[in-house]
Amino acid sequence: MSTLRPDGRPRIPPNQVVTQKFPVMTAGTPKTADKETWSLTLDGDVEQAITLDWAGFQALPQREFSADLHCVTRWSKLGTLWRGVAVSVLADLVRPVADPVYVQARADGNYTANLRLVDMLSDKAFVATEFDGKPLSVEHGGPARLVVPDLYLWKSAKWLRGLHFSPYDYKGFWEKLGYHNYGDPWKEQRYRG
Ligand SMILES: Nc1nc2c(c(=O)[nH]1)N[C@H]1C(S)=C(S)[C@@H](COP(=O)(O)O)O[C@H]1N2
Ligand SMILES: [Mo]
Description:
This is DMSO/TMAO reductase YedYZ molybdopterin-dependent catalytic subunit. Pfam families: Oxidored_molyb. The chain starts with 16 loop residues before the first strand and ends in a 17-residue tail after the last helix. A hairpin with a 3-residue loop joins β6 and β7. It is built from three helices and eleven strands, in the order βββαββαββββββα. It is mainly beta and about 190 residues long. The protein is about 10% helix and about 30% strand. It has one domain: Oxidoreductase, molybdopterin-binding domain (Sulfite Oxidase, Chain A, domain 2). Bound molecules: ligand MTE and molybdenum atom (MO). The site of the ligand Nc1nc2c(c(=O)[nH]1)N[C@H]1C(S)=C(S)[C@@H](COP(=O)(O)O)O[C@H]1N2 has 19 residues, from loops.
């Protein structure tokens, strides 16, 4: 695995260590949904809110994504392979109206994370239902999770159940507890202050 990106810049953010494993990082023990009961609600300041069930989500254009993952606890996992739907496809479905648009990712177990929509467009974020060619395991967020590779992995909410679009940057679960509001691994935005 190359440790340089194609543009010659380093592939591993400062003070991260590459692991071949895929650690499970979960706060609490959320009660998660199965495919029969799962749904994804896209709402907030949008032209048309929508709730998708599993079949509705699967009917959207699915794609493969490869991503380097960087956890704030200093492990990085390079070249992971996912399948899912780009957040830009989901945003186009509901058409957010705020400017700027913030996104609150909402997950089972009252987990939330706050993001800016602009950082999730152009294939920079996706909702994944497969990892490594297999259905996403429950421990890693199955049936569906958010993946935002450009930000520390706490932003990538597992057991995703909603994206709430709004002009307000509501702090998420870890952000309220002192993690950085933005979380750029290349700038080592680990904790606030
Ligand atoms: N719903 C939910 N999503 C979550 C978490 C969580 O506790 N609950 N933990 C976050 C954190 S801190 C990290 S590092 C990643 C870990 O993902 P993994 O367990 O698949 O490695 O999930 C993120 N998404
Ligand atoms: Mo984390």
